[in-house]
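thoughts on both lines:
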Amino acid sequence: MITLKIIDDKEAEMELISDDYVSVIPSELQWRNWAADSEGMTGDALKDFVDNKLFPGLQNLDISTGNKRAVLIRDIFAGTNNYMKNGTIIRQVVNKLNEIDFNASEDRHMFGDIYEGLLRDLQSAGNYGEFYTPRAVTEIMTEIINPRLGEKVLDPACGTGGFLTSTIENIRKQDVHSVEDLKVLEETIRGQELKPLPFMLCVTNLILHDIEVPNVMNMDSLNREYTSIGAKERVDVILANPPFGASVSDGVETNYPAAFRTTESADLFLLLMIRYLRDGGQAAIVLPDGSLTGDGVKQRIREEFLTQCNVHTIVRLPNSVFQPYASVATNLLFFTKGEPTKEMRVCIANS
């Protein structure tokens, strides 16, 4: 519901800016036409509309024209179901959201802080915690790498978008001075996320950061042929906290060279990120201890990593940083692709 309200407010703004703007959402499904009237549909009628018209309509948007906004909205709602069984409560939620104007800077900034708090709360919410990296971690990693306008930035496991929004703010405060600059920023920040919930949260997060059409894809980054990633897809910067301690989907490891095949997600993501990074490109990632010390395939991946990249700094984090859902020791790795590792600085972060 938050996402729908934000999309509708942004579309109202675009209609004012551009006379020829036409929404990709059918009129009867637009927020303004079913939700904006506080005395409008409620009870069973509202629940029936949400279950049988709104969500199915958004899940089946026409994407034959290739409109990026249509594809994005359809992907957001592809896995969405309504778990609110009382239409009167749905109306109460909708009316509360109608009190927010996401085109008013004061409302947007206030809600942005609230939304950040919601994402932070996911850190202690069981399985959902895997989608959130503490803001202090994302900000320090981004500040050290310092991506600039025009550089292609990728997070292949973007979760709720913490690294992407940190990158956007880092670039905006230094380099964005015009509408053209903002367009370049929007086109060069890219994320990929497999799970529907964090994907939806990420898109909403980026829209709140004034990205008109977030360049985020609902996909399994690991589920493509490793060698198919060519020069055109290479990026200048990678900032990421890939999932670790989990097994990948059946058969995914066969996309990678035989010597590096494993079902450990963190190890495959490390290979993937090396592949995506151009020579001279920079990266800062979170990686568990096991990827740095293990034997067998882990050792072979590590040797490939240290040969292709100059891993110049490792920051060892306290075990408490990613608790309660992961108590393993983790590290921040900073590296540049294109030359082997020669000297490495290891720092220990205090809790």
Q: What stands out?
A: The chain has a mean pLDDT of 89. The radius of gyration is 21 Å. Strands lie at 153-155, 189-193, 216-218, 235-240, 277-288, 309-316, 330-337, 345-348. The first strand starts at residue 153 and ends at 155.
